[in-house]
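Memo to structure team: turn this sequence into structure tokens by end of day. - J.P.
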Amino acid sequence: MQHRPVTLRRRTGEDYASLIKRPLHILALLVPLILAFEIGSRLYLTGESAPIQTIRAHSLLLGFFRDLGIAGPSLPSIAIIFALVIWHVSVHHRWSVRPAVVLGMAGESLALTMPLVVFFALLNMALGVEPRPAWQPDAADPLTKLPWKSAVIVAIGAGLYEEFLFRFLGVSAMRLLLVDLGRISAKTGTITAVVLSAAAFTAYHDVASPHGGIDAMKAASFLVAGLYFGAVFALRGFGIAVGVHVVYDICALALAGRTPV
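Reply from structure team:
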């Protein structure tokens, strides 16, 4: 009787580092956030909260769909889900999700938020100012007047739709132009795309000084945050980039002294 040698088949792309960048695992991480925003925006971002309910990235996406003749407040969320499903189908990955991987992605989102929080805390200490988040809220900022539940929903929406707009679409599109069409190296193209998206992310926010001109500290803070989110996107994928952005914005609310009401 002839015995065949036992061989161990290694499934390529099935390790944690690969799975966290796969669209189905990204979708599994983001669906709870999408549902939280869709439900929370209807519960807590109405009435007096309505004027700032539409995060600008959310508004831009809604405007894009309106220009196509499509209307509906949930279209940006549908767009994220649709993009990830189409991506998954196009690469022919298996329709299976490992819960441990999704939990690991959530843990990474928490852990990778800390360097950014610590950086701004140390920077503010060095400058001798009170600990404040990157967006430097003041009494005139409408977000500081929201009940904490409404503010958390805004933070979730900002993480979802800003990362979708600036990283998932922005970095990916610029990388396509620079690397695939421009034929520069993948490393150089990715770094350039991350820097350009961070610059666009900074310009997208209000960095005007109350005294006129540009608030250099606020602009630099947004640029640093944009570079960090872009680096997380490039190294750890879209899902963790969204997670870091959401957790950071929630930490920023806490640093701003918000208490539940």
